[in-house]
Amino acid sequence: MTGKQSNRYAELVVVCHGDQRYGGELVSEDHVLISVLAGELKVVLADRTHWYGPGDALLLPRRQPATLLKYPKDGVAYRAILLKLPPNLVRTYYAQHPPAVAGRPATMGPLAFPKSPLLQSLFASLLPYLELQQQLPAALLAVKITEVLEIVRCLQPQSDGVLADFSEPGKVNLVEFMEANYMFNLPLARFSHLTGRSLATFKRDFQKAFQSSPQRWLTQKRLALAHYHLAEKRRKPVELYLEVGFENLAHFSYAFKKQFGYPPTALLRPTAG
Q1: Which site in 43, 66, 140, 166 is 20 to 30 Å from 50, CA atoms measured?
Q2: Do 109 and 193 reside in the same domain of the chain?
Q3: Reported pTM
Q4: Full residue range of the structural domain in which residue 73 is found
Q5: How far is the C-alpha of 151 from the C-alpha of 154, rounded, in Å?
Q6: CA–CA gap between residue 140 and residue 129 (Å, rounded)
Q7: pLDDT in tens, the chain (273 residues)
Q8: 191 and 144 within one domain
Q9: What CATH number corresponds to the domain at position 43?
């Protein structure tokens, strides 16, 4: 069983748990601070993959396309605490505490933190928020956000370059962006926003660049990637369907067979001779 625990009086705090492999895409308008309590977390980006285990903590920047896969390990269910850091609250903090590091990091992705009692005590202090019976006062929320950001900045010097970046998505090279991020199962409206376009402009520019509709192109690219993983890396369909942009195994298997004329499992059968 998988699920989330949250409280409407403290919506920034979420506890995720699951006793089976599960996951999906995340592109948040908030920065997300994650502490893995048990199990394993796999964060798949366009060009690299990161693994995190119990005691690990990371900051996932806002608008960073990623697939998050959660695994139980050694008979222990996955469990993690997530803290959302909305830009308006972060902006208020930085108005009073100028960043020490200017500019975004050369490569975006999760920022990992060294194990620290500061982080342990921080995340432990968030769990009681799930029991609140009334709205967390704004003054206390501001104090907590200040504590969070002070700890993050202390432990990870590069965090200023991520947290203090309040720019809106500009119009980017559509071909480069889509070739790098097609494996993420995002709505077209989300792709259009991340490339700095209206949905109508995105569809028009896409057709001009690829001579295909976005959905058709995305499906073909994802299936080609899946074929490569199955045939060359000998990965099982159940291991990869989420990573190549499909919501469930049945849909992936159907689309794969429709595209190639045989099921994905056919590529795993031993060849004669």
Answers
A1: 166
A2: no
A3: 0.84
A4: 2-163
A5: 5
A6: 12
A7: 788 999 999 999 999 999 888 888 888 999 999 999 999 999 999 888 999 999 999 999 998 899 999 999 999 999 999 999 999 999 999 999 998 866 665 556 899 999 999 999 999 999 999 999 999 899 999 999 999 999 999 999 889 989 998 887 788 899 999 999 999 999 999 999 999 999 999 999 999 999 999 999 999 999 999 999 999 999 999 989 999 999 899 999 999 999 999 999 998 876 544
A8: no
A9: 2.60.120.810
